[in-house]
Specification:
With 398 residues, the chain is of the alpha/beta class. It folds into three domains: 35-203, P-loop containing nucleotide triphosphate hydrolases (Rossmann fold); 208-292, Helicase, Ruva Protein, domain 3; 296-397, Winged helix-like DNA-binding domain superfamily/Winged helix DNA-binding domain (Arc Repressor Mutant, subunit A, Orthogonal Bundle), CATH 1.10.10. It contains 15 helices and nine strands.
Length: 398
Amino acid sequence: MIEEIFNEALTRKSVFKNRDALSPHYVPDNLPYREKQIQELSKTLAPILSGRKPENVFIYGKTGTGKTVVTKFVVKKLTEFAAQKNIPVDAVYINCRIHNTRSKVFIKIGSELLPEENFMGMSTAYIYEKILGKIRESDKRLIIVLDEIDKLKGLSDAVYSLNRANDELENGSISLIGISNNLTFKDRLDPRTKSTLLQHEMIFPPYNAESLRRILEDRAKIAFRDGAVEPGAIALVAAYAAKQSGDARYALQLLLRAGDVADEEGAERVTEKHVERAKEIVEEDIILEMISTLPENEQILLLALAKMTQEGQGIRGFGTETRITSGDLYNAYARLSETLGRDPVSERWFREYISDLAMYGIITVTQAGKGFKGNTRLIRLNFSPRKIIDVLEPRLMG
C-alpha cells in the first residue's frame, strides 16, 4: 500500500515545472512594477562600494507589496557585484519575528560572520566585540537587514548599538535596512536612538489587479508547464489578491495551492474551480504559518487558550461561542509555562501578547463590562483549536 502511494507520487504527471518559483523565499530575476524601488534602493546602497557608509534605510508598506523580495534582490546583486570587484561587502538577513530580541539578533549576526564560533550562552557584549573584530580585520562593509523590525523587543537598544558601532570601527562599516508593515514603528525609538540615525525612507504602494496579473503571469511561466494554467485562473487569483490590499504574497500562495488542487485531481490545467477550492486552504495556511513563527511565550499563551477552548472551558452565553476571561487565561498560561519548564511572563507582558494576537486576528478581545472584576477582558479564539494544538504541541513539547 505504501509503495503504491510512493510510486504514484513518482509517476503522476504534475502541472508544475518548478513549484519553488511560487515560494515566498524565491527571488526572481525580474520584479515587474518595482523597477523604481529597485533603482532607489540600489542608489542608496551604492556608496558602500567605494568605502563610504550609506544611509540606513527604512522600508514601509503593507504585507505583500514586495518589500522583502526587492531588498533581497538588490542586496544579492550588490554583494555579487562587490565579489567580482574584490570588495568585502557582506549581508545578514534577520527575520525579527523569529529573532525577536537584541541578544538573538546579535547571535544571528555573529553566527553568520563567524560560523565556527558558538555564541549560545555568551553575553551580548562579548558577541558585539567579536562582530566588530571580524569587521575590522577584513575591512568588511556589512549590511544588516532587519525584516519585521517592529517585532523586535528592545528595539531602541538594538538599533542604537548597531548604528553607533561605526564610531568604534576604524575599518569597515555597518549599515541597516529595516523593513516594517507599520509606518509609525519609529515612534517606539527613544530620542537618543533617533538622533543617531541617518536614514533614507521608502514606502512601497500596494499592487493593483493588473500589476498582480502581470506578476502572476511572469511567475507562472517559471513555475508551471506550458499551457498548464488557464488565463481565467490567473485573473481570478489577481482579483482575490487585489481585494487583500494588493498582497502579492497571498496571490502567489493562492496560485501555488490551486496547482496543488489540480494535481490532486489529476487535472492537466489549473482552472478557476481550482482557485476557488484553494482559497479556503490558503486562508488556513496563512494563520498556521503565522502561528508557527510567533515568539515562544505567545505560542504558549495561544496553546493554553486552544486547550481551554477545546475542553469547553470559559463563559458561554454568546451563541455557540465560548469566551475565556483574561484572568483565567493568564493562570492557564502560567501553569503551562511551568509544565514546559519556562518562566511565565508578568501580567503586563501578558497583556502585550494578548494585544499582539488580537492585532493578527487570531483572537478577538472585548471588555467584560458589568459583573466582572476590574479590567477583565473576554477572549475568543478565531481559529480551530484542534489545528492550533496540532501545530504548537510538537513544537513546544518535542
